[in-house]
Amino acid sequence: MAFTLPPLPYALNALAPHISEKTLEFHYGKHHQAYVTNLNKLTEGTTWSDLSLEEIIQKSHKTPGAEGIFNNAAQVWNHTFLWHSMTPHQGGGAPKGVLADKIAVAFGDYDTFRTQFHAAAVSQFGSGWAWLVADPDGRLHILKTGNAETPLTQGGVTPLLTCDVWEHAYYLDYQNRRPDYVATFLDSLVNWSFAEQNLAY
Ligand code: MN3
Fold it and tell me: Residue 129, Cβ neighbours under 10 Å: how many?
């Protein structure tokens, strides 16, 4: 079955001024759409098309000859996850409840978490992603991945939220100032209720 571009969970201008409508027009409407279109082109009429998106990601990962399928499938999944990792409704800052407790256990306090997540996102060389994940014991960790790589292939790790640090995510609004973009993501956009929902799985 053909894959389709999932709806954006808010209007294209909803994250402004932090992320502009122009950026989302390109990032969602062109980049995310292109990954969907390319994945369909690569899988149409093959046995890949019988699999779910998550199954394709697992099966194509590090599989010789399937690099294009992995890259496009993972980027479809990563971007859908990204849109939900941000909210136009007073996002960012320190979480409350169970995530506040888990951040205190894993990092000591929110400010230390913030510093470490920011450093991971800024130091990812080239294109990639920064993630907050839970390991199988429920302990939180910060990860960074290159290009299309996703924690879904890292045995038993549950992604909670992600920040896209490909230049296309921020260049129109922040040019080369990735540190400012990541700071805005943390302070004004993070959707902690989405992260908490993911923790429950
Ligand atoms: Mn992107």
Answer: 29
Q: Tokens in use for 104?
A: 């205190």
Q: Which residues surround ligand 1, an ion (CB under 5 A)?
A: 164, 166, 169
Q: Would you say 129 and 144 are in contact if contact means Cβ atoms under 8 Å apart?
A: yes
**What spacing in Å lies between the alpha carbon of 25 and ligand 1's midpoint?**
12
Residue 101 CA to ligand 1 center (angstroms) comes to 30
Strand locations in the chain (E): 128-134, 140-146, 158-164
Tens digits of per-residue pLDDT, 48-73? 999 999 999 999 999 999 999 999 99
- Vertex 42: Cα angle to 5 and 68 (nearest 5): 95
Sign, CA dihedral 94-164-105-199, equals positive
Residues 122 and 32: their CA atoms lie apart, in Å, by: 22
Query: With a threshold of 0.85, does the pTM exceed it?
Result: yes
